[in-house]
Amino acid sequence: MSLKFNSKYSESIVSPSDIEAIAPKAVKAMDTLMSKTGEGNDFLGWIDLPTNYDKEEFDRIKKSAEYIKKNADVLIVIGIGGSYLGARAVIEAVKSYNYNLLAKDTPQIYFIGNSISPSSLNEIVSLCDGKDVCVNVISKSGTTTEPAIAFRVFRELINSRYSKEEAAKRIFCTTDANKGTLKELADKEGYETFVVPDDVGGRFSVLTAVGLLPIAVAGIDIDELMLGARNAQNELCDTDIEKNAALKYAAVRNCFYNKGKKMECFVSYEPNMTMFNEWLKQLFGESEGKDGKGLFPVSCVFSTDLHSLGQYIQESGADKMFETVVKFNNCLNDYVIDEQEGNIDGLNFLAGEKMSVVNDKARLGTLLAHTEGGVGNLIIEADKLGAEEIGYLIYFFEKACAISGYILGVNPFNQPGVESYKKNMFALLGKPGYESEKEKLEKQLDL
Ligand code: PA5
Question: Gene3D superfamilies attached here (predicted)?
Fold first, then answer.
């Protein structure tokens, strides 16, 4: 399978000659990436993942997923950022954002440890009442505060419900291969462990055990997901910008940025893509937003948000943003609109029409309205919302993001800004070693 990228509805803002002008820089950025000579080149393990993954571990993931499906009503997935968003994005995209409400033969999957909200934590604990539970804790560093707090609670819950031996079989740790608190604990307690490879950063890790175990538990075919990613790996290599969708997309979004459009709005017409948009926001925001540079990623699900943010985009978006629309050409579960006697709602002109057609007309109408309003639209087309297509899209966006970051002149693989809030939070909580900082911050806050 392949994917189509179309920038023709943006030509009044980013012209073919703009793209031609930036093309050499984009090709150079891709060469820097593929020759592994750029900044952050120790985090490029994701490039070969679709072909060069640990096959023994992949089989263990499938076996563990089967074990969890057989022995648990609920899987608790603990993680934050790149250790959370990818799995949830894929499960909701391929299954449904109503996954937990569906009639199914796979466990409920609850995500926790992605905030420090006690109400959310308590809610998930109570949802486990009377249920058989397994836990997959995911943290590359093994020390991130949010998942560490949640893991304390759920480890305790498992330990209090099951024998020591049974408890050990119900906890699965995805972490560093050799080091970290979580790895030490897993080895000591005999938990099954999976690896976040050293050379794969959190937001590029969905195709490792980080994403694959929860995705497999949800009943999604992880071979298909990897196949899609592998197709993308093989297809998105051309140095001709017209023949490489990832290269062209990376170039065009930089053209928008250089023309002062500092926001990219990821748009889908499928609510099931809501969390995929969140994954995209992390991927691009954390990779490019540094050194005072980078597009600010936002997202919308249309037509829902046409009744809220659509107003802003139409009338105030032109000088600051563009839209990247991910479109699926075939609907897997369509609905045909009925004729109704009396035509009271006046909708009989749609009788016999597929709802997917109505959705697409809304998309086309919006495309015309927003581009006339001065907001450029980039269109990414995939065949359908399936595991293979999502695997392809994941790799497409990862590669485009890395190239785009190099065009922009940043290291797309670090996240130094994430540390600032942590330092302050630890100081304010009185963590040993932060005493003088605590006093200073409390004065600043006037506490
Ligand atoms: O992309 C990233 O590197 C981050 O979002 C991390 O995934 C996030 O901070 C969680 O880190 P860890 O897996 O070490 O708990």
Answer: Glucose-6-phosphate isomerase like protein, domain 1
